[in-house]
Amino acid sequence: MAQLITSDIPRFWEAFRFIHAPDAEAHMQRLYLDAGTAGVQGFRPGRIESAAHLVRVARAREAFYGGIQASSLQVMGDVAPQLDSVLEGFERLFPGVVLPDIYLVIGAMNSGGTMAHGPDGPIAIIGLEFFSAAPDTPTHELTPWERGVIQPPTQLPAIIAHELVHTLQDIPDESQRSLLLYTLAEGAADYLGELVSGQTVNPALHRYGLEHENELKAEFLRDILRGQSHEAWMYQGQKAAGHPADLGYFIGAQIVRAYHRKFAHHPAVLRDLLHFSLRVPEEFTRRSGYFGEAWLARGLHV
């Protein structure tokens, strides 16, 4: 049975005590990175990066990090019942499914979670700094994007479910990944995670997407036809311009939602959302009917 691993949280706060010490990086390295679990190690590439990077980020947002310390430690005790509910949701949708452990870590304000490969297989990792905000948490040091994506601990079931879905997907290697495949991988995790937890990962992004859905569909189709890379729609963070970041998550979830509604009577439909969507993304999208005749009219036939 999946376990929740929270031991990295107090380790981070022990290192954070030395944030202004001349040797702060050495403390962060010794107390947090070197002593950290597989979750910390899996969160280092492209996220935590190094002790120097994490100290630099935490110093620039000292009031915010200090402001979430108490709530992040409280989460360690409060999240267990939420996790039980998520695991029950997975068992309901995918009877007999085997899920990996979930690690809560503190990162560098650039990722709310990921799936990584631990010593014994896939693991789910959550960047708890994104899910520890309270109404009085200081946010004046944060960028507009950071202020827009931090959420309270009540949203943890949604992100845990999302990352656990990723551990069940067979995502092709990077040489085979396209904008559509990235979109469906994240969209399936968002949609199935919502079925499991009853929550969307980013409610504000979902609201924006619904309000602008027709224009976003047209833009997405245009970018597919142009061979646009996924950077225009995914993993943008503070680099997004003109729209909120990461709207590919919304488009992907809507494609997956449309497929589920259309084939809800098929007994294997949920497995299709996990696997068929990534094995033949163009055919999955066509069958979903989400783009209607525009999918073929724009030359995107399979």
Automatic annotation (TrEMBL):
GO molecular function: peptidase activity
GO biological process, one term: proteolysis
Top-rank lineage group of the source organism: Bacteria
Pfam families per the UniProt record, alphabetical: DUF2268
Keyword line: Hydrolase, Protease
The keyword Protease is assigned to this record: yes
Every DUF2268 domain range: 155-264
Protein name listed in UniProt: DUF2268 domain-containing putative Zn-dependent protease
Organism of this sequence: Deinococcus antarcticus
